[in-house]
Amino acid sequence: MASFNRVILVGNLTRDPQVKYTPSGQAVTEVGMAVSRSWFDKNTNQKKEEVTFVDVTLWGRTAEIAGEYLTKGRQVLIEGRLQLDQWDDKQTGQKRSKLFVVGENMTMLGSRQDGGGSRSPSGPPTQAGVGDSGGNFDHQEPPEQSGGYEQSAPSGGEGGGDVPF
User: What's the whole-number mean pLDDT along residues 140-161?
Assistant: First the structure.
């Protein structure tokens, strides 16, 4: 049976990216995106909007570019795949899970002034992907995520459901 796992998102970052490195030197960052959709409700005669918050994990050069050029509020297009992490909560013993996007390509949208500007005076590349520094990219698997990078407690306390950074 064939399957297909592809996600394309356009939205605004909800926080500044913070790049971390695995013990082997691989860059990784998690960014939050707010993706909205709006429609006109004929029953209430009003415009409605729904916002979905999505966590995106970026690896390699893409993670470094995100950390250097992206800021909270900046609009970005992410292409990637869905991934499900599952673990046992250390405090409660319950099974936990989190669905997130592994970004394989990233395109910065809008101007550098959108979302608070850029962290660098030089112009950023407009597109980045896993395994390369610009253009369209081939997919490259990130390192195993069962302890493949340094961990610190998520902001919600240990076992709070975030990808461990």
Answer: 38
CB 150 within 8 A of CB 20: yes
Q: Which residue has tokens 């405090």?
A: 91
Q: What distance in Å separates the CA atoms of residue 53 and residue 57, rounded to the nearest whole number?
A: 13
Query: Against a cut of 0.70, is the pTM above it?
Result: no
End-to-end CA distance of the chain: 35
Task: Tell me the pLDDT tens digit for each residue of 3-38.
Answer: 999 999 999 999 999 999 999 999 999 999 999 999
The Cβ of residue 45 has, within 10 Å, a number of other Cβ atoms equal to 7
Residue 30 burial (CB < 10 Å; 0-12/13-18/19+)?
Answer: buried
Tell me if 38 sits within 8 A of 73, measured CB to CB.
no
Q: For the chain, give every domain's residue range.
A: 7-129
Q: Judge: domain 7-129, CATH 2.40.50.140.
A: yes
Q: Using DSSP bridges, classify how beta strands 95-108 and 46-59 pair: parallel, antiparallel or unpaired.
A: parallel
- Checking phi first, is residue 42 left (phi over 0); if not, alpha (psi -120 to 50) or beta? alpha
